[in-house]
Design brief:
The protein has 320 residues and is mainly alpha-helical. It is built from 16 helices and four strands. Helix content is 56%, strand content 6%. Strand 1 and strand 2 form a beta hairpin. Helix 8 crosses helix 12, helix 9 runs antiparallel to helix 11 and helix 9 crosses helix 13. It is globular. The N terminus is likely disordered.
């Protein structure tokens, strides 16, 4: 493992590269996509804290046996929702596999230690759908801003919704990823998977306006803009900056608080409501499984609401 990669795996902590090369947590985290490292490191830190006075890099993962991982699974099932617990168990399996591959666990100990089942249960997806009027209000605040930031933010919000992009995906975009002739946009998603998105109608107009101001210099598609309104050429937008834009424009539009992921949720729900095939929506969203896409399908809930309205409750409201 190189010193640079090892340092990235630890979130920038200065630890000797030789130590990291044999640390199963560092090896596991270094194998992940950049956008997943922080989440999985937090998961390892949490589990290490449950196991003792450890963090991800000091925990003796190679010493864990089935009785330890089984007890850890029980603790996670009690404390967290099923999806969160299973994400942590995935990190546990990953770090144990790294320990085995490093020769720190024999095959039998590793096989037994990872033989813990997933936590069962289902929760509703977090967040909410963005109404059409709210989206219009958000874009209106951007067009009212005559600076370069206004044009940039309009294009950014339009792509978040119309292409269902994740924050990490939108900041990774380069100018070369967009074909202005066809509107095709190459998106680099999780696990280095690429997909094509299509920038159409209002989104295409918003992106064209931003590119007119941005210029045709190679580099990141979305650039930082200083307080004076000048574009910082070559300075790529960050995921935190995307979050800040969403919060700022939502506050200016006077709408209820929203998250960046709410644009993606709305993208999936609106396409399914409009009759798009769920397999097609899955590919557009870059979901690994159609089951993930189905979690954002609002149609079953609407059908259940209509079914509930078939019942009659013989109650008359009180007079004021």
């Amino acid at each position: 493992m190189t010193t640079e990669l090892a340092t990235k795996a630890t979130g920038g902590e200065l630890v000797a590269a030789g130590d990291l090369a044999n640390n199963p947590a560092a090896v596991y985290l270094a194998s992940l996509a950049h956008g997943s490292r922080r989440t999985m490191q937090e998961a390892l830190n949490t589990m290490a804290g449950i196991l003792g006075d450890f963090d991800a890099f000091s925990c003796p993962w190679a010493m864990l046996r089935f009785q330890h991982t089984s007890a850890l699974r029980s603790q996670l099932a009690e404390r967290y929702a099923a999806a969160t617990a299973n994400k942590m168990l995935s990190a546990l399996r990953g770090v144990l596999k790294a320990a085995w591959r490093l020769g720190q666990m024999d095959a039998e100990a590793y096989t037994r230690a990872v033989d813990v089942g997933s936590v069962t249960g289902e929760t509703l997806p977090t967040g909410r759908a963005i109404a059409a009027g709210e989206l219009a209000a958000l874009l209106k605040t951007c067009t009212a801003d005559t600076t370069a930031a206004g044009a940039r933010d309009a294009a950014l919000l339009a792509l978040l919704y119309s292409c269902g992009l994740r924050r990490a995906e939108v900041v990774a975009l380069d100018l070369a990823d967009y074909n202005p002739t066809t509107g095709a946009l190459t998106v680099r998603g999780k696990r280095n998977k690429q997909r094509l998105a299509h920038v159409v109608n209002g989104s295409r107009l918003a992106l064209t306006d931003w590119l007119t101001i941005r210029g045709d210099d190679a580099g990141p598609l979305f650039l930082a803009v200083n307080k004076g309104g000048a574009i910082r050429q070559g300075q790529r937008f960050t995921t935190q900056a995307v979050y800040n834009v969403v919060q700022k424009r939502a506050a200016e539009a006077g709408i209820e608080s929203i998250s960046c992921h709410d644009f993606r949720r709305t993208f999936v729900g609106d396409l399914l409501d409009a009759g798009a095939d769920i397999a097609t929506v899955q590919r557009l969203a870059g979901h690994a499984s159609v089951n993930t896409t189905a979690r954002y399908d609002r149609r079953p809930e609407e059908a259940k609401r209509k079914a509930a309205e078939l019942l009659h409750i013989p109650y008359t409201a009180r007079k004021a």
